[in-house]
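Appendix B. One record, verbatim.
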Amino acid sequence: MPPPSICAACGAPIRWTITEGRKRLAVNASPDPAGNAAVSRDGRGTWLSRRPTQDLPLAPYERLHMPHPATCKGREAAEEPLTRCLGVIRLDERRRERGRG
């Protein structure tokens, strides 16, 4: 199993998962019973995540993990918003930095 990635904002170990909507979601590397993301691996080793529901509860092969943006310490210390933790660049701020508006 590959080692977990490291959050650029806080340095915590994270795992990048693919959601049912085919989006990327960072979850804390360690399982957490208080989490709300059911995490598993497919046959190719890709980490998958989904929200358990009453219709489709947690399966025996899934573990609950906490989404990392909910616990990231880097965004508390920094003046930057949650988007920094997610690796998103705000274009309006970037354009101001470059002097384009």
